[in-house]
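Case study.
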Amino acid sequence: MTAASLETRLKASPAGGGAAARARMLRSLLPALSLALVLLAIAWLNPRAISYFGFTLMLNLAIPIALATIAQMFVIAGNELDLSIGTFVGFVGCVTATWLKDAPLVGIAVLLGSIGVYALLGALIHLRNLPSIVVTLGMSFVWQGLAILILPKPGGKAPDWLLSLMAFKPPLIPFPIIAALVIATVVHIGLMRTSYGVILRGSGGNAAALRRAGWSLLRTKIVLFALTGLFGVLSGMALIGITTSADANIGNGYTLLSIAGVILGGGEFVGGRVSPIGAVIGALTLALAASPLLTFMHIPPDWQVAANGAILIIVLAARVLISRKER
Amino acid sequence: MATVAAGIANRISLSMPKANTDTRLDGAAKHFGAANIDIIRLDGAEKHFGAVRALGGVDFHVGAGECVGLVGHNGAGKSTLMHMVAGTLVPDSGAITVRGSAERDYSVPRALELGIRCVFQELSLCPNLSVAENTRINHPSLIGFGWRRKAAELIAAKLDEIFPDHGISASDIAGDLSIGRRQMVEVARAFTLTEDPLALVILDEPTSSLDAHTAGQLLAFVRRFVASGGSCILISHVLGEVLQNADRIVVMRDGKVVAADAASAFDRDRLVATMGGAEGHQRTAAETRKAEAGPLRVKARPARQQDGKELVARAGEIIGLAGLAGHGQTDLLLAIFAAAQRARTGIEVTAPVALVAGDRQSDGIFPQWSIAENIGIRSLALLRSGLLISPQREAELADFWKNKIGIRTPDMNNNIYSLSGGNQQKALFARALGSDAGIVLMDDPMRGVDIGTKLEVYDLVREEAGRGRTFLWYTTETEELDNCDHVYVFKNGRIVANLGRDELTEEKIIQSSFGDAA
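After joint prediction, the assembly is written out as follows.
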């Protein structure tokens, strides 16, 4: 260790730390910034949309998307990916519109059982060291098949309590916004502030370090997957509460939407870097950009999916540029 | 001092596991009054990784209030031994005894319960978590309301105690900290105290990323910790640190303990001599080749080199790159490899280059391909006929090398994984030697290869060098340097010594690579 290397190290570290913290700050503000941009664009194109009624309409589908995004975020926190969340939401929707209404006990048992299946998948992936992409891709066909068995053609009806819950109109603030705030706060406290949440995120950051400290990685994986199952169930129920009836294919788009939401919200595929608040904001941004904004811009529905993709690419490119500056 | 001893005895009796009330307890109980019982004792610990013997019957113990220094060259088995003490590795055979009672199912949670902790050489912080959150990972008892504040206070207080003016905040994200500060956090974290007792801390190269000032702070703290009755195992390649701070020094070599004595009984020279082994002097002198000065092939200066030293290799020379593992040898080889494609400042390469990778699983082998395809990939231009690869010429090349280098297989079209590890490595040598490369870079390619294969390859390398090929050979095995005409010793990314064939001794290499006074 020579004096020269000491000097460069001393010089490099405080500046490097400060710059990294600034870039991190900027990056964590990026999801909120992109949401604000989309809102501004909507306000400019159609000022009347910025109202209680407008938001209730525009953010109608944001609650199930936000819940599915949170579900995806839990597996991503453990360096895994769930490609079955979309068809799982569809499966839950079919159960909700049939059994949960006609035979509530059976419905509840099936939904709890499906969360158990998710927990078992986590155990399987950890114990056999399988790639989660393969396992969940396989499961996506299983969920889809089960959904079609339950509800061969669109139909069914949501339980009345669910309908009235989703139609709730609180004073002043639209329900979807309140729901988003509640979801973000609850998950933020659970994952980012509790002592076991640290262990869950640590399992994505440095699994070997966790094992050396005596923690069970099997348990963290099971918990993360079970949480994904739980939020997948909530997402499916919320979706049926809004649409009132189900269809086996109703959730198929949610797989990629949820992944995009997590990444848009500042999460990363590996390293346990996720943000529940960011994920919810990402889901809101996607929900707003998906149809209201593009309709106001008079973009024909045929092009809306592509435009949606373009927004995603622009935001992610901005993030890459910021991350590069970090180095 | 008497109260300290009593305190330790107290702690020992408090944390004595109740389950272990077998006959051994009687023996242990006798020692309690003296309070000088070993914190941990390993008897005849053995460990194999596949065919490689990492530890061959090691006896090792640490007493209370003792700082044990552990030294040895690359691959001597220090880290394996420490993994056993920490509970992360289970010995194949041998007994572990903690404070006199035999531990049958020794594991990490058990070690932590007994107050044995380890700061591993590879950093084990979670980069996505804050300093306080990383502290919580090591303390299962930090739960419930207000745990964040408790964890932050815990780590901040310990950092203040060990490294005054450290400049680290408990809310900093670990990934944002410089590597030196990460190491400071990791060391401080190991000494934080909640529910579990703290009896023994293993420090595996704790100063490798610290500058002289903070390293001094750490070592002073270790002395205070030991003086107050704690125990410590200090592993360091800076011999001065070990000599000055350890009470007792254990020297390892080839998976065995070769010397263990009070630190005062050692000095630098004795330590170096013990690490290198006495037989180092009477090595079998390979037939001396006449090194005529051929045309220049490589001239390279490491990126971190500050003086004028540089590596020079001429046609027909075998150049060794020595020193401790990870001190810049591989980086220089890769820089030379890159310079062969595109000019780089400070590096001059005048012939095509081929690289024999050290980590053959990740950097060398194409797992889905046959042996012949794996050999031919570096020579595609020669194997081409028209736009396509000629299977006939590929087979010819493969068969030539099969006979020449002795790859043991019935059919060169079998998958590369049908070969044993040593033969896979031979195939990678054949890939490099069968190509047009005038310069062959070898990145410690003999790791985990059996001795028979090694000797065959050594002969081949000398033969090829006789035909004018240049070899740059990074190796962690000192005996292999006997094949070299010239050896450059690396330390901290720099060349620190240039040893000619006649002045090459193992002692000299160790002397330069451990040269901490420089």
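Observations recorded in class. The CA atoms of residues 74 and 224 of chain A lie 5 Å apart. Chain A touches chain B through 36 residues (CB under 8 Å). We will return to this complex in the next lecture.
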